[in-house]
Amino acid sequence: MSSDKVLVGVIGGSGLYHLDNLTFIKKVEVETPWGKPSSPITISALPNGSQIAFISRHGPHHTITPTEVPARANIAALKHLGVQAIVAFSAVGSLREEVAPGHFIIPDQIIDRTKGIREDTFFRGDGVVVHSMFGDPFSGQLNAFVAPRVEKILASTDVKLHTGKTVVCMEGPAFSTRAESIMYRQWGGDIINMSVIPEAKLARECEIDYTLICTSTDYDAWRVGEAPVTVEEVVKVLHTNAGNSRAVAAGILEEVAAHVEAGELTEIRGSMKFACITRADVQPKAAREKYSFILPEYFSS
Ligand SMILES: CSC[C@H]1O[C@H](OP(=O)(O)O)[C@H](O)[C@@H]1O
Ligand SMILES: Nc1ncnc2[nH]cnc12
Q1: Which residues of this UniProt protein bind phosphate (predicted)?
Q2: Is 58 annotated as a binding residue?
Q3: Is 157 strand, coil or helix?
Q4: What domains, with CATH codes, occur in the chain?
Q5: Residue whose CB lies within 8 A of the most ligand 2 atoms, among 218, 226, 237, for a mutation test
Q6: Is the N end or the C end of the chain the one with fewer CB atoms within 10 Å?
């Protein structure tokens, strides 16, 4: 069973600017109330006909810094197209010996070390106050669905999958100092990137199930006697990791689409219903109209 709806979105990170095994349908330019996404969104069909939407986080030619990624436009555009689940990819540094370069990680927690300079909510400046639930920042149901499937695909390789890990999201663009890297380990961080915040928060505000499939490129800066991470080191591993990520995407997306279509992702659905503390009758009309772009069920004008 496959539908004409675009239920699954894929966000490609560093090194992952396209996917394999897809039939191109169209590129769509979506203008959202929060601006334009990082790139036109590519709609393609999987071999079974299910459609997916792909966005390249840093743009197709990697021209957008982690701080400048228009995450609100990316997530709003995907939601507006009908996406209910996002499979995002990210290149990460490892804060643990056992997470070697090349390994896959599906984290279940986040430590936010961004600096407050990214727009991390749809609900600011419009007279409507919303507090989303973020204790479990990833979709537990989607993580649980995806992890064994990724593990199965990697089983024939020497690439390991780690689950139950914590990702630290730093501001960048410079990599961490050695002292910071050691501190993140003491805090319980296992891997580090510059992208998961605000993406995960915004997906939650749109009631989209969000999972992050990470690939490790380096050991960051905490290893005594080893040189700290450089872009050169990251890029050396990025190509192999992107190939493995494409194989993983090709292996899981049909099943993810079927899972979403069957209505199996239920945890996040409805979570924003009571997240708005501002009474509907005092919400400005213009704000309601704006928010109906992402949450029409709660904010019709
Ligand atoms: C190229 S190294 C740092 C860069 O790589 C990761 O990008 P993404 O998450 O989009 O794969 C990391 O978050 C940094 O933005
Ligand atoms: N060491 C690192 N720190 C932050 N983001 C990264 N992405 C890949 N490696 C990274």
Answers
A1: 14, 57-58, 90-91, 195
A2: yes
A3: coil
A4: 6-293 (3.40.50.1580)
A5: 218
A6: N
